[in-house]
Design brief:
By secondary structure, the chain is α+β, with helices and mostly antiparallel strands. It is 49% helix and 14% strand. It has 6 helices and 7 strands; from the N terminus they run E-E-H-E-E-H-H-E-E-H-H-H-E. The strands form 3 sheets. Strands 1-2-7 form a 3-stranded antiparallel β-sheet. It has a two-stranded antiparallel sheet with strand order 3-4. Strand 5 and strand 6 (147-148) form a beta hairpin. The radius of gyration is 29 Å and the shape is globular. The two termini are 23 Å apart.
């Protein structure tokens, strides 16, 4: 039975005139709550919460990183020593690194709207950061000659990649919602249905 329908069953034992002593019928009334404006509320899923919390954090880190280093330098001639970022807390950043943080933060914010979209965003995010982690562990100094990194960066990238992929795999609210009847249209219609059965 839908949650937003108020079912009231009235059993009347007295007899009505002209009914020849037969008892009154059992009546079940289905009525909308709050004048037909009740709608099912859905809480955010784990995937959406990850997007909502980590997304703005990455954007903030990217913006603050420009105060530590705003240059868009690169490793020229294959010399990784030419790419020298500056420390932001314990992380090594430059202009490109800051842009990546802002861009991936905005990507996560896209997933806040819907659960299915959040799962897709987390998979893309997790795979991208996993690739960055692997390159960072192999090179140890920069990512593709653009992003300066250190050990703290590698650890952060691994944690973000693993967390995103794990949450994307265990967040399964869509399956539960698919089995749940959609009563929003019935709530908006304001229809009242009566089912009467004689004893």
């Amino acid at each position: 039975m839908p949650r937003d329908l108020d079912t009231t069953t009235r059993r009347r034992g007295r007899t009505a005139a002209g009914e020849h002593g037969r008892p009154m019928t059992t009546q079940t009334v289905w009525a909308d709550g709050a004048g037909g404006s009740v709608r099912r509320r859905q809480s955010r899923s784990l995937a959406q919460w990850f997007c909502l919390l980590v997304g703005p954090t990455l954007i903030l880190v990217g913006l603050l990183g420009f105060f530590a280093e705003a240059k868009f330098d690169t490793a020229t001639g294959g010399d990784p020593g030419a790419l020298d970022g500056h420390n932001f807390i314990i992380f090594e950043v430059n202009g490109w690194h800051n842009v990546v943080h802002i861009a991936t933060g905005l990507l996560l914010l896209l997933g806040v709207a819907r659960h299915a979209l959040a799962k897709t965003v987390l998979i893309v995010f997790g795979v991208a950061y996993a690739a960055v982690s692997i390159i960072g562990l192999i090179d140890g100094k920069d990512i593709l000659g653009l992003l300066p990194i250190d050990r703290a960066d590698n650890v952060l990238h691994i944690v973000l990649a693993a967390s995103a992929l794990l949450i994307a795999s265990i967040s399964t609210r869509d399956r539960a919602d698919a089995r749940r009847p959609d009563t929003s249209e019935r709530s908006r219609s304001g229809a009242v249905r009566a089912q009467t059965s004689a004893r």
